[in-house]
């Protein structure tokens, strides 16, 4: 090979390497560390007792029957009145729809847009077939030295208790918000939120209310959740997937099974399902790239190099992250065939067979686009496709991660949870938060609790429970965030600051242990 060609190739490779390194450098920044704040001196045992009492209210939502749990929701409301007398004397309360609660703590500066803290009062049922596997009955609210047990401790009555106790504490300390603050507790999140959060938003919208920021339930503080990072990470959802279920129906000539044609409705349906599963929707790396860029120097150089240069490594990254269900769901609209039906007797050819296909929509993929994509993939006029408009919704818009609300939320998390890394992420399930996007651009989903391995999957499972220390830390966090979001210094208090001294590793470990 001529020497000139070799030189040209080497120069080109050097320029390519420089270009890739320049793109990678912003991904390698080291997170700012902040000084830990003094934790509010709240009464942990009283807080635990409050949660234990509301767990005994069996506020189980039932699909198709919005009135099924009204009596228990009203009993829970009565308990809250007894538990939080200062709050109920200070804040205005509206009962929205049948039983949803909207509290307003009027700020001193009504020109500032309000902030809202959301949660939901309803819970999922405990499977009757598993009751003998519970250490303590699911609605006993049992307390021991370490835990409060029962359905709703994690999802999400613990968050309601923490918010109410935080406000009760702040009132007792003489705190007065400059920015108006709302507490919004829906009655039916577990069955769609139509009578709860949706009506609360309608009520606020009718009053012309726009909000500066919203925080609802969402990700917690986890360890080992993300590939290529083993540190604890606070997962703050800034967007939420949409939801679409398509009814796929195959049609064929019915008749006797002794004289079948070349195919049947069930065979046509099976072929359609095979095509759907063999052709997943395209992957997109945008949201995962935001996660890793936020982690900066906490992630190894090679991973950051790849995500900073998806123009080159994109196909490899998509293949790698498509291989595992958890990461696959983070990069594409997922497809799941969840129900199949067809036929009434073994000697009758059915006239039709049907399946339900559930999609969780990545932001950017719309209900209309995914429906049409499915139609094109199947490509069979003998198959009809339709959706139930009442059971589908678009993905939420992404809240900005460089705005004042996210900066302040991130700073507050670091100040309470020992400089844990904070990252935005895409929530794969459904929460009430999606409704608030119509009146607020900065909607976030975060539950301030450290989730250890033994607590994973308990939210709708057996032996749901929360550590007393975690519940206490939630109260302390909300008291601090309310001060930062609604206090006299406003969100400007959380503007970026210069690097300050870190806690010693042993201090971090001790503090995290206390929170657990």
Describe the structure.
By secondary structure, the protein is an alpha/beta fold. Helix content is 36%, strand content 20%. The protein contains 15 helices and 16 strands. Strands 1, 2, 3, 5, 6, 7, 14 and 15 form an eight-stranded mixed sheet that branches. A hairpin with a 3-residue loop joins strand 1 and strand 2. The longest helix has 22 residues. The protein is globular. The C terminus is likely disordered.
Give a quick set of tags describing it.
alpha/beta; 8-stranded mixed sheet; disordered C terminus; 16 strands; 516 residues
SSE layout:
Layout lengths: L2 H22 L19 H12 L14 H14 L1 H6 L1 E5 L3 E6 L8 E7 L26 E3 L7 H16 L8 E6 L10 H10 L4 E13 L8 E9 L1 E10 L3 E2 L8 H14 L7 H10 L5 H8 L1 H13 L2 H7 L2 E9 L5 E2 L2 E10 L5 H12 L4 E5 L16 H13 L4 E7 L15 E8 L14 E3 H19 L18 H11 L1
Parallel strand pairs: 3-5, 3-6, 6-15, 7-14
Antiparallel strand pairs: 1-2, 2-5, 4-16, 6-7, 8-12, 8-13, 9-11, 10-12
Helix pairs in contact: 1-9, 2-5, 2-14, 5-14, 13-14
What structural class do you assign from the helix and strand content? Answer: alpha/beta
Low-confidence stretches: 497-516
Mean pLDDT score = 91
How much of the sequence is in beta strands?
Answer: 15-25%
Number of helices: 15
Oligomer state equals: single chain
How much helix, percentage-wise, in residues? 25-40%
Instruction: Determine Rg (CA atoms, Å).
Output: 26 Å
State the gist of this model:
This protein is α/β, with parallel strands linked by helices. It has 15 helices and 16 strands.
């Amino acid at each position: 090979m001529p020497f000139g060609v070799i030189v040209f190739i080497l120069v080109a490779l050097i320029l390519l390497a420089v270009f890739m390194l320049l793109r990678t450098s912003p991904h390698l920044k080291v997170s700012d560390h902040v000084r830990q704040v003094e934790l509010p001196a709240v009464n942990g045992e009283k807080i635990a007792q409050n949660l234990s009492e509301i767990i005994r209210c069996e506020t189980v939502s039932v699909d198709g029957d919005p009135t099924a749990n009204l009596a228990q929701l009203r009993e829970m409301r009565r308990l809250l009145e007894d538990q939080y007398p200062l709050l109920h004397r200070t804040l205005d309360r509206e009962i929205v729809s049948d039983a949803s609660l909207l509290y307003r703590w009027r700020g001193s500066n009504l020109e500032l847009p309000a902030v809202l803290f959301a949660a939901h009062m309803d819970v999922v049922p405990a499977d009757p077939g598993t009751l003998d596997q519970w250490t303590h009955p699911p609605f006993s609210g049992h307390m021991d030295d370490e835990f409060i047990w029962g359905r709703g401790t994690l999802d999400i009555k613990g968050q309601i208790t923490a918010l109410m106790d935080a406000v009760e504490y702040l009132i007792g300390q003489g705190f007065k918000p400059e920015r108006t603050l709302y507490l919004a507790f829906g009655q039916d999140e577990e069955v769609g939120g139509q009578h709860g959060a949706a009506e609360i938003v309608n009520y606020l919208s009718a009053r012309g209310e726009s909000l500066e920021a919203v925080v609802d339930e969402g990700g917690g503080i986890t360890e080992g959740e993300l590939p290529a990072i083993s540190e604890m990470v606070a997962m703050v959802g800034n967007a939420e997937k949409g939801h679409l279920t398509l009814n796929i129906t195959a049609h064929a000539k019915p008749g006797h099974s002794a004289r079948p044609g070349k195919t049947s409705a069930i065979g046509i349906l099976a072929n359609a399902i095979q095509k759907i599963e063999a052709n997943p929707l395209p992957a997109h790396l945008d949201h995962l790239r935001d996660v890793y860029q936020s982690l900066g120097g906490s992630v190894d150089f090679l991973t950051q190099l790849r995500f900073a240069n998806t123009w080159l490594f994109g196909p490899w990254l998509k293949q790698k992250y498509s291989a595992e269900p958890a990461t696959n769901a983070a990069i594409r609209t997922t497809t799941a065939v969840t129900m199949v039906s067809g036929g009434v007797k073994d000697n009758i050819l059915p006239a039709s067979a049907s399946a339900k296909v559930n999609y969780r929509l990545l932001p950017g993929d719309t209900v209309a686009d995914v429906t049409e994509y499915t139609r094109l993939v199947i490509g069979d006029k003998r198959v009809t496709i339709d959706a139930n408009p009442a059971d589908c919704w678009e993905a939420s818009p992404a809240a900005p991660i460089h705005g004042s609300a996210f900066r302040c939320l991130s700073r507050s998390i670091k100040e309470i949870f020992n400089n844990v890394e904070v990252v935005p992420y895409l929530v794969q399930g459904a929460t009430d938060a999606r409704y608030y996007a119509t009146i607020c651009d900065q909607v976030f989903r975060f539950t301030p609790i450290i989730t250890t391995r033994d607590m994973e999957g308990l939210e709708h499972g057996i032996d749901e429970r929360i550590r007393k220390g975690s519940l206490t830390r939630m109260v302390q966090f909300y008291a601090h965030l309310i001060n930062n979001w609604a206090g006299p210094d406003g969100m400007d208090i959380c503007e970026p600051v210069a690097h300050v001294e870190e806690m010693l590793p042993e201090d971090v470990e001790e503090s995290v242990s206390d929170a657990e």
